[in-house]
Amino acid sequence: MLFCIKIDRTLILMKKLLYLLIPICFLIPACNWFAETSEVGEMLSIHFENKLYKKFDTAAYHVVFKKCIDSLKGTLSNPKDITAWYADHQNEPVLVTAFFADGSLDSLAAFISRSPEHGFSPSVFGYQPLEDMLRSLQANKFKKIEEVYPVVAELEIRSAESLLKYHNVINFGALVPKNLLNRYYIPTKRPDAENNVRVLGTASIQQLLSSIQPESANYKALQKAMLGYAQSNPQAEELKTLLVNMERERWKLPETGPEYVEVNIPDFTLTWFSKKDTLIHMKVCVGGRREAGFEEKLQTYLKTHNLDDMPKNHQTPLLFSKLNAIQVNPVWNIPSSIAQSEIYYQVLKDPYYLSNSNMSVYYKGVRVADPDTIQWRKYSREKLPFTFKQGSGGGNALGKFKFLFDNGSSIYLHDTNNKNGFNLANRAISHGCVRVEKPLEFAQLLVESPQQFDKLRMEVNLPPLDTTKMNVFRFQQAKKTDSLKRFELKPKWFGTKKQVPLLINYKTAWADQGTIQYRPDVYGLDENLWAILKKMR
Fold it and tell me: Residue limits of the L,D-TPase catalytic domain (predicted)?
């Protein structure tokens, strides 16, 4: 009995003790009596052999980090993606934790210090603030753990900004071409949120930044020449040209594959590349440069709507497409801009201009039987109710061949009835389309088969290469010259053996067998790019 009483008293004492211990247990975590050291604190304490960092309080750090990123947000190149990435990672110092002790953040700073090799000042990528924060943490002179938080927070944010900006500029280019260049329609890949997440989440800064260094032979040749001018003649005009074209080399253009056609506007040439070989190379004529003071004159025109105030812009657009068809003996659907600015004045001076030029006139889609009788002075050119077509034949401005590809600018490659333009040094003379010097040879590479090429030749009064088809050719020629029957020349379509990628590009400097070739900035596009690039030097 006495034993049971003693047990009861013991149980009562244990219950009272338990009630006292429960609130104490809740207080223990708050007091950090047995709290685990944070990952970054553990890393720093081991790296510096300093137990101070074991006191690193994650909750206290988060408060400091939030204030720090808010204060630096205005200096970040991509604040939205950076703040979102840290929100997804609970505002932890991910980069400092992973890359401080092993020297990777020092490697990041080293890459940035060498950015003049690409034509950029290290300050563009925040080199000095990054270096300052690295030195502050590496000094290991903190007296209290509270002094560590702002240094780690700023180092983390500076590292993220420098890593992301350096990666994106070197890998994608510093500029967005469609925002700066008139008539730029080449799909050019730019860094997006997915790219930025991948960069910030990299497993190796060293490998990542090594992998994005431009390796093309053309880039390296431009880079070598640029560094030579930067050391010997930093004011040389060639230096600017080299830097602008290095930027173009960094742009991620569509994949052309091993075989493609490239028109280089400043060089006034077309080249068909097949791997490392050149299948054909020829002169071209391109669109004329847009009128000086274009933007100001355009604003005037938008106010007056007077065609006399509308500035001219015939620049050939930069684009990427695929050649998919050939039209032989083409009809020219004359653009309304040419009808209003040129044809209207021609018919006022010469009522027979249209018939002499093999041009037809259409009113509401119906062909006008005798356009020479139209009283043109009754119509203002701003509200001209007619459309115009030039028929097939020798006098057609498109010549005998038109090479088609999908685009939103209504341009194409074509032959011409005026070959004199190819003798000019400056061949920026067309209304925007590209005139080719060797249309027949170009067509031969495009058509599906030798048999199709012979048919194409006969359509333009050339004998077939296959002599067994000569009887067919003679019959066709006799039909065309039969004076008793009126023969009307009509367009014929030919398919291509495959859709050949076409890049209408703009390069004013490139490497050719070890020599840098320079060309005039015919459209002034280099100046548009240089206006921004020079601020990054």
Answer: 259-461
The pTM is what? 0.88
Contact 167, 126 (CB under 8 A): no
Count the domains in the chain: 2
Mean pLDDT in runs of 10 for the chain (537 residues)?
40 50 46 69 97 97 98 96 97 98 98 98 98 98 97 98 98 97 96 98 98 97 97 95 98 96 98 95 97 92 87 95 96 89 90 87 91 88 90 88 96 95 97 97 96 95 95 89 66 94 98 95 97 97
Instruction: Please indicate, yes or no, whether residues 44 and 165 belong to a single structural domain of this protein.
Output: yes
CB distance 152 to 61 below 8 Å: yes
Q: Tell me which residue has tokens 């071209």.
A: 284
d(CA 222, CA 233): 15
Between CA 4 and CA 362 the distance in angstroms is 119
Please state, in angstroms and rounded to a whole number, the distance separating the CA atoms of residues 440 and 419: 14
- Active site (annotated) includes residue 433: yes
Q: Does one domain contain both 155 and 264?
A: no
Q: Of 388, 329, 381, 339, which Cα lies nearest the Cα of 363? A: 388
Single-letter residue type at 225: A
Together in a domain, 88 and 201? yes
Q: Is 414 a catalytic residue?
A: yes
Alpha-carbon gap, residue 290 to 459, rounded angstroms = 37
Alpha carbons 211 and 192: distance in angstroms, whole number = 18
Domain with 185, as residue range(s), is 39-212
